[in-house]
Design goal:
The protein is α/β, with parallel strands linked by helices and 337 residues long. Helix content is 39%, strand content 20%.
């Protein structure tokens, strides 16, 4: 049976992910007056977030900090203070942003990350909802194609091996991993669920591998959209097309659950590909239209490129426009493909 849902109000859009791509999309959706909920990964263990996580045994704050800023309506100077990062010569504070410290301190004061984020969201005039994917720090584990394994989000991509599968484990004594409060209800009540953009194995899948979240994404009446990455990533997705990315997602959850693929067909200039090769990115993700057509019921393809700050990014405004229009106007879901 084809499911329908009329849109007579602001569309409820849940965006799931982490990393640097997520805030760009969230900021643009906020500007379009969507009812936005962000579900943010808690498996990061690198940089300032990793140091605070290890010191305080706390949920890593970095991705949550960037999402709060993206949805905040406080003056820019206040955002700049929240984002300020201490320099390397500052010894014990080296590399830490003020926002990371505030989030960690608030979580320590309240005893949990969920309440901390809700308090800070009110203080920062956040337009929408921000939820950690879980209320405890999680460990990301990877199995490579050769059968070897690695542990820790920041270490997985360093082996140079192709990743076969990722899974989560908890810190300390084994116990069931649960989604943060309100995450599942937000997904089930959404008009659209958006995955990405972000690192496939280390930003998107860490959320979906929380059992409650994975089940909710497969069961929701909402259309599930995957924003395909523009560039491949070193240690994660070398040689993978946009259709390959979706196949990995389907394989991890055991069924086809993505209804719409949003894919870039704009050509990345050669000079930017060469420049990106010196960082974590490699080459442009190949657009495999035939593969996508087999994997998902609906494809939205366009030039979604934005070249800025000497890098290649999604054009947040253009992507948000497609997401908002589809969520608002669509009266049929693409389930039962």
């Amino acid at each position: 049976m084809i499911k329908t849902r009329l849109k007579k109000r602001r569309p409820k859009i849940v965006v799931i992910g982490g990393g640097t791509g997520l805030p760009v999309i969230l900021k643009s959706l906020k500007e379009k007056e969507a009812d936005v909920t962000a579900v943010v990964t808690v498996a990061d263990d690198g940089g300032s977030s990793g140091a605070l996580r290890e010191t305080l045994n706390a949920v890593p704050p970095g991705d949550l900090r960037n999402v709060l800023i993206a949805l905040s309506e406080i003056p820019q100077v206040h955002k700049d203070i929240f984002q300020y990062r201490f320099q390397s010569e500052d010894e014990s504070l080296s590399g830490h942003s003020i926002g990371n410290l505030i989030i960690s301190a608030t979580a320590d004061m309240k005893g949990n990350i969920y309440e901390a984020i809700q308090i800070l969201a009110k203080m920062m005039l956040v337009k929408g909802h921000v939820y950690p994917a879980a209320e405890e720090p999680l460990v990301l584990n990877a199995r490579y194609m050769d059968g070897t394994t690695a542990k820790g989000e920041s270490h997985i991509a360093q082996s140079g091996k192709l990743i076969d599968y990722v899974a989560l484990s908890c810190v300390g004594e084994p116990h069931p991993i649960k989604a943060s409060r309100k995450v599942v209800s937000a997904i089930m009540d959404a008009d659209m669920v958006v995955l990405g953009p972000g690192s496939l194995f280390t930003s998107i899948l860490p959320n979906l591998m929380i059992p409650d979240i994975g089940k909710a994404v497969m069961a929701t009446e909402a259309n599930v959209v995957y924003i395909c990455n523009i560039m491949t990533q070193l240690g994660e997705t070398e040689g993978m097309s946009d259709a390959d990315h979706i196949d990995v997602l389907h394989r991890h959850l055991g069924e086809k659950f993505i209804d719409i693929a949003l894919a870039n067909i704009g050509k990345v200039p050669a000079e930017y590909v060469e420049e990106e090769q010196s960082t974590e990115n490699l080459l442009q993700v190949e657009h495999d239209f035939k593969g996508l057509k087999k994997a998902v019921p609906h494809i939205i393809s366009d030039d979604f490129l934005e070249i800025r700050n000497h890098g290649v990014y999604h054009n947040g405004e253009k992507v948000a426009e497609e997401i908002f229009r589809t969520a608002f106007n669509s009266q049929r879901a693409f389930k039962n493909f």
